[in-house]
Amino acid sequence: MDRGAMLTAALLCCWSCTVCVVTAIRRTDLFPFGDLNGDLILPEGDDETSRALTLPRPFYFFDSPFSQLYVATNGIVSAQDLPMEKQYVDDGLPTDFPVVAPFLADIDTSGGRGNIYYRVTETPSILNRFAQEVHRGFPDAKFTPTHAVVATWENVAAYEEQARANGATNKVNTFQTVIGYDETDSYVLFLYPEDGLNFYGTRPKESYNVEIEFPARVGFSRGEVSFFIISKTDGPFYSVAQDENSVKRLSQVGNTGVPGVWLFHTGKRFSFQEIIPASIGGLLAVPPTAGYGLYLDSTTPEYEFDDYNFEPESQEEVDAAGSPDSPNPRSEDSDRQLSYSREDVPLTLDPVERQYAPPGFPLTVPEGGTQRVEEQQPQLPLKVLDVYPPLRSNLPLSPGGHVVSVDEDDVDFDTGVIQYTTENKETCARFQQQCSQNAFCSDYPTGFCCHCQPGFYGNGRHCLPDGAPQRVSGKVSGTVTVGSTPVELNNIDLHAYIVVADGRAYTAISEVPEPVGWAMMSVSPVGELFGWLFALELPNGQAGFKITGAEFTRHAEVVFSPGNQRLSITQTGRGLDEHNHLTVDTVISGNVPFVPPGAEVTVKPFKETYQYYPFVTTSSSVREFSVGLPEKVSESYTFHLKQNITYRDCRHGNRAATPETLQINMERVFVMYVKEERILRYAITNKISPVGDSSEVELLNPCYAGNHDCDTTAQCIPLEGQAFRCQCATGYRGDGQNCYDIDECAEGLSSCGDYSQCLNLPGTHRCQCQSGFELSYESRTCVDIDECSSSPCHISARCVNAQGSFQCQCLPGFHGDGFLCSPQAVHLRSQCEEHRDSLQSGGQPSVGAYIPQCDSDGQYRPRQCHGFTGYCWCVDSRGQEKPGTRTPPGTSPPACDSLDKPERPKTQCERHRDRVQTSSADGFPVAGAYVPQCDENGQYRQLQCHSSTGYCWCVDSQGEERPGTRTPPGTPPTDCDKPERPRTQCEHHRDSVQNTGPLGPPVVGTYIPECDENGLYVPKQCHDLSGYCWCVDSSGQERSGTRTGPGSPSIDCRIIDYVQTPKSPCQRHRDSVQTTGPDGLPVVGAYVPQCDEIGSYLPQQCHGSTGYCWCVDSRGQERAGTRTGPGSPSVDCTSEELERPKTLCERHRDSIQTSSDGFPPPGSYAAQCDENGLYYPKQCDISLGQCWCVDNRGQERAGTRTGPGSPRVECRRDEPERPKTHCEHHRDSVLSSRPDGLPLVGAYVPRCDENGLYVPKQCHFTTGYCWCVDSRGQERAGTRTGPGSPRVECRTEELERPKTLCERHRDSIQTSSDGLPPPGIYIPQCDENGLYLSQQCHGSTGYCWCVNSSGQERIGTRTGPGSLSFDCRTGRTDQSERLKTPCEHHKERVQASSSREYPVAGAYVPQCDADGQYIPLQCHSSTGYCWCVNEDGQERAGTRTPPGAQPRDCSKPDALKTLCEEQRDRAQASIQERYPVAGVFVPRCDAQGQFLPQQCHGSTGHCWCVDSSGQERAGTRTAPGATPADCRKPAPTSRAESVCERWRASLIEHYGGNPDPHQYLPQCEPDGEFSPVQCYGESTYCWCVDQEGREVPGTRSQDAVKPACLPSVAPPIVRPVTRPDVTPPAKTAVTLLYAQGQKIGALPLNGSRLDAERSKTLLTLHGSIVVGIAYDCKENKVYWTDLSARTINRASMASGAEPEMLINTKLVSPEGLALDAKRRLMFWVDSNTDVIESASLDGSRRRTLFDSDLVNPRAIVVVSSTGSLFWTDWNREAPKIETSTVDGQGRRVVVSDGIGLPNALTYDLSSGQICWADAGTKRLECISPNGSGRRVINSDLNYPFSMVYHSNHFYFSDWRRDGVIAVDKDSSKFTDEYLPEQRSHLYGITIATTHCLPGSL
């Protein structure tokens, strides 16, 4: 008998032995569980609770929805976080909280005593099996689960007291619960395998040696429920077992007809108060022998046999395969749904045809093993419910643990297989949703198959667009042993990118530690899988994905030679993710040969033959590779690869047969390990073809050779000969050389139907149903969910289904809301009933009217629903809607009974509505009154309707009706979502006039045009103040001859008909003024000439705004001496007297009023002259509302200008003038900035007070923007507000500005050692703004010279005493003019760039100083942008600030940019007029230059979260219009929630899910620990915390700079931990040593430059936080403090040296460390105990120097040569730097003023000064120990932490850059920077030298 027949006989024997009995379940019959199935594992312990398991959609337990579950050690699953076990573990049911209890007892998994697994899954095989169980137990149930929660307790033990541990019974239990649910119902399975329960109860912890044991409790409890609002009572519960006997029987009986299987209906969306158990044939006893049969009542499968053993090689394997006790691997799809067999079930077999079967599975089922195939055989109706591929499953291996490939000779293909029955077969009508969206379904006699549509390829279940490149992502885990060192790979990332067009596959595995990274270069088969899946197909070739789809399992074994190392590789395809990318997880275990670091691995090209069978593909090959090192001979190795790939196949249809063999040609294999990035890379070029030589085929066409030029998203289509054509892949568009993704959603090309949302994907799209709808059977359209099918209404009501909702109506004779109906009875009506009946008083309620629902007591039901619209909301006892509870139709109604959070304040709409609804005497709305409608957020609904009149209209956010939107009853309402029509010219004119005053309202007396309902000018216009009326045309222009005065009969402008004559000069003048604004409207306050009926100038003209009048001639020119003020008698303009010559004032006035176009410029200032033509002493600009005094020449007298509404200055003609102030100069320069002496139109004019100082609040009256300024007129950052926004209160009392360079220069000379200036010394002279006066003179010598802005003498300008001084403003000593500078030339070019020699409107005009040089700060007056320039006028990168922001201090050197700033500036580098290129993503950075957590693309609208390095966090990207992800939440992780994270989550929930910026939320690190610095909301109110989150005293601050807090928990490490030893740095004279958390780095110096190329890790210290660091030059040792271990340590800097612990007691937070090599002492500070201590270098002679008057000591420095000690204390209340002797004597403060966070401290031996770097003031300063000579080296630091001085340079570690920065002491400039590859905070820094430096001894 051959092996196949033997297997068949053995299996049939097994079936025949089990078909007659009912068997209990075994462990292998539990639902698949374990880490290979994606389970989470509960941590070991006695009372552990899982983190919240968030459900994809809520499930109903009883009738309450829950969105989270918690799994507990003690045998329960709860919908709420659990209390301490002592509060429930020894009590019976009910519990105080919701509980599903399969075995509630005191369980303990400590010490590895069992595991607890849990997960939520949507795997169809799990859901199908669960649905079968439910339909078996509840035949009438219409239930299709959408999700399942599987929780398994495996081999768990009872809690044992310590005293009884030696007598432990070692009994363990195994049991499982599965919760399945859909949108409306939930069911629960309890499963107890036959040997699963070995103890039945547990002892209480406090039994006091009394022998008592509580039996386990099994059942369900709802927990406490609200009772009369303020109290609570026990909710419903159900008990299955609560005594020892009933617990014992759990595995012996069941309520499903199968022992050990219990099923319960546990919840429903609507009223459900009792658990309903299943009942099938009573409870069955377990037969003496336990077997397990097959399902006999099943339908035909579409895809079969997911996991198979390969063909056995020995008779022993046959016996093992046929044994009924053969283990069944635990996998999510390995259970071929074995059922619980019964007696007397007939077996029938029908004739079968020859079919393929998977290797190793019995191919025949002969009775007794002898019956022939041709005979009539009874067919076993076999069903395999797994219709989805295996997930996280392990294919059973043959003995020896290796995979066996299949040879064709080992399989008998001439035997039959088990056939299908066609009864209840699976069809497309029922299961089309299992096909891909890009596939179609076909029915066949035995089942259905899925086939990809044209343009796509795959197996039908998963289809990808032809030609498009593919991406793969996943995780790699397992243990790899290199030599004798095992290294664990813990879920590291794998990413692959495949260019399908030419078969190139690139694979990258990140975070691969050494030495595995080097060794794994030889394991190229890891990346070969992706090459096979997407190989370039030669003629008759077929890539693997077309067969497997996206769900498969690959098992491979690699045996290396020589060495015989064995490596197992398991790769599982998990399907396509939401981006249509393939997800593959990889598990690697075994041994690999050692590969030396730095070696190169070369893999030779090879060919491999794949053999194809149904459901499995296998291959076996031998490969060669070589390992080479530079200057060494390469060594050759081989490995033998055996692999098989199992997948789902569909054999129902007529799919083209897969070739039995194919050959894959891997032409180029490239492997590399990048040590610095710890990335392992594989690159392979793959081609697949029939077996044979494919070289001739490749020569035929470039498409086959892969050397075409098609785009990576295009297909290469071979044509005749060498010709080919490039065709963009499906879902892409272009010419083939360049292809672009088609957005099917945006272009309307999607297949999504109604009620669905389209999501674009590369090359395709996806459809998602809206809430309240579900996919129809064909997976293309969304259909309404029929809520009535679940009978949600009361028994005395009928259900009416609606689109997306439903309605319950009580039957006649009953009253209620449909959910609760009561017989009608006579009783006193309540307010609710009166309300309801008043609306129904007419016999029938109005169609569409809302009818309130009352309960049986006549009270308002808490939840109200509108039967017509489907909206629901919660109400209070008065029937008033609770804000924020309204839900639209089709969504889950609010849970009004559980609302216990305080209500938010009512909105304007809600207050409006409630006033109307309670406006009558009886508290009801007045009949016929309009009641506004508010949405769920309390805002006005855009469409409002009057229920009584039927009128509808649109409103704005304030509830104001939008004109033109009202519609009468019976007509379609206006679509309020459509934008309003654009405003007309009349509306623009009207609105601009109504908002022209400084505070918004119109200027008093201004004419406001009237517009009709369509926005057109009303034909007749009137001036309300003056009473004049006139007719206008369609453009608002006055029609000549129609103006009438007040009281005169007006003209009927509707019937006027005249022939319009050409306009006269007066009319043209008038009309030009009325349309002179940029928007075509008259400038407010402008003078408009008056013309008579024939168009001539009226002899007397008056200014409508000012009230002045004057006489004009026929040309409109003012006649001198005729102007009169408001209220004065007017001159008789008809007299014929001669005019006198015009005065200076009159000529000034007339020149303004007759500019180039003959008319006065709108809004311009016209001089006011008295009757004699002289200037009035007081002049006013009516447009600005400002007045000032002038002299007899009309020149403004300084300090006399007043603003609108201010008291006027009394102007006298003989008052002396004071010099103009800076503000007045600024203002006057703007007012006369054009060549013609007039201000630029729209220019900002500064406002000065009566003393000539800048008014604190400045406004630009053209744009409406306002802002605050300082005394120099500079805008104060953050104060700019837009038009209509609330103004910022600007205060004049400001902090004194920092001293300028000139003032510091002057003051440093005037405060020498004795406080007086040295005699005869030169003292610089500064102006009122602190700038150098352009001419400087030496008071003692009499010499004078000119200086530039930095005080440097200008060559050739020095003159001796008594000589003619040089004019430093003009640059000459005589009348000759100096040559113009480049800045002045630049400025003139811009100002003469238009035809009229005015600057082009909006053009940037450079600003030059008095010497003609570019002012360092340049600003664009139109855009408001400012930036710094160099001496050539070139912009300095990174200095540009937007309008309203504080401009940069251009005197400071450029700061080093952060990574975010660099990326942002690069994005803005290609700019036009300094704006970013359209479509380019520009990162957003915070004030510290770090990436904002949330980034958005300004062009596309997409938003996403990023980490600290700007990398996108997976799964956080949202489409435009969608609610962005909360980037404050930590990224998802598989570990249990930490205390910090749980506290944060609970506060977020407490705040209602959206905390305000001022509310505190704990800040957690990525590993869950508390962040060292905590802040209150988004404020700067911050403090430091320890490991437990407790505040560190003395660290609280409200400064803009956060406190310098150190972590107390070491970051996670990569295990196994290697022995720490020293790797000496490169041989160099000077090396910087720096501390970086868990390592000490070495950075050599090349002169003063940082030699980054030779940097290396000196010492790795896993689990440490190295902070302070010092170096002993005598013994070549490095010392450091460890904040995590709380120790002080040292190590010799010799190769292989190991650390030595010196001090490990009485240390809490050791930070700064200093070493005195001369006295052999070390000193350190402890910032927790606030002490400074010292000890010998071996740790002995420890003593405390100071333990008082310290708050936050940080840095410490010792000066061996002087015996001095210096330290910093960054006490936020009183920071200081102190000193003492090394023995603690002479303590005193060196500096305490002008410092903030003095983190870093060092000593400058060359100058004898102590220097510090301050993270608060951002300055690097030095001072002599006696407190004198203080100077600033650099004032633009970021966040320094530690610093050292060497060779005229300061080197400091910077927390913002996470690197080492160098600063030159003389130039004060940043000279170099080093950023380690691993970006994390750097702490201490010191110098190591080959010999002791001078002064160190």
Spatial extent as radius of gyration: 44 Å
Low-confidence stretches: 1-20, 281-423, 996-1000, 1373-1377, 1394-1398, 1470-1478
- Tally of alpha and pi helices: 20
Report the biggest beta sheet as strand number plus sense, adding barrel if it closes: 11 strands, mixed, barrel
What integer is the average pLDDT? 78
Please bin the fraction of helical residues.
under 10%
Textual characterization of the structure:
With 1897 residues, this protein is mainly beta. Helices cover 9% and strands 27% of the residues. It has 20 helices and 94 strands. α1 (3-18) runs parallel beside α4 (315-322). The radius of gyration is 44 Å and the shape is globular.
Question: Which descriptors would you attach to this protein?
Answer:
mainly beta; globular; eight-stranded antiparallel β-sheet; 1897 residues
Secondary-structure map with pairings?
Blueprint lengths: L2 H16 L21 E2 L11 E9 L2 E9 L3 E3 L20 E6 L2 E2 L6 E7 L2 H14 L9 E12 L13 E10 L3 E7 L9 E2 L11 E2 L1 E5 L2 E4 L3 E4 L2 E5 L2 H5 L12 E8 L7 E2 L37 H8 L105 H4 L7 E6 L2 E6 L3 E3 L4 E3 L4 E13 L2 E15 L4 E6 L6 H4 L5 H9 L2 E2 L7 H4 L2 E11 L4 E11 L5 E11 L7 E4 L2 E8 L2 E13 L6 E13 L13 E14 L4 E11 L5 H6 L1 H4 L8 E5 L5 E5 L3 E3 L4 E3 L14 E6 L2 E6 L3 E3 L6 E3 L12 E6 L2 E6 L3 E3 L4 E3 L7 H9 L23 E3 L6 E3 L33 H10 L25 E3 L6 E3 L30 H10 L25 E3 L6 E3 L33 H10 L25 E3 L6 E3 L32 H10 L24 E4 L4 E4 L32 H10 L25 E3 L6 E3 L32 H10 L24 E3 L6 E3 L35 H10 L25 E3 ...
Parallel strand pairs: 23-29, 26-35
Antiparallel strand pairs: 1-7, 2-3, 3-4, 4-5, 5-13, 6-8, 7-8, 8-9, 9-10, 10-17, 11-12, 13-16, 14-15, 17-18, 19-20, 21-22, 23-24, 24-25, 25-35, 27-28, 27-33, 28-29, 30-32, 31-32, 31-34, 32-33, 34-35, 36-37, 38-39, 40-41, 42-43, 44-45, 46-47, 48-49, 50-51, 52-53, 54-55, 56-57, 58-59, 60-61, ...
Helix pairs in contact: 1-4
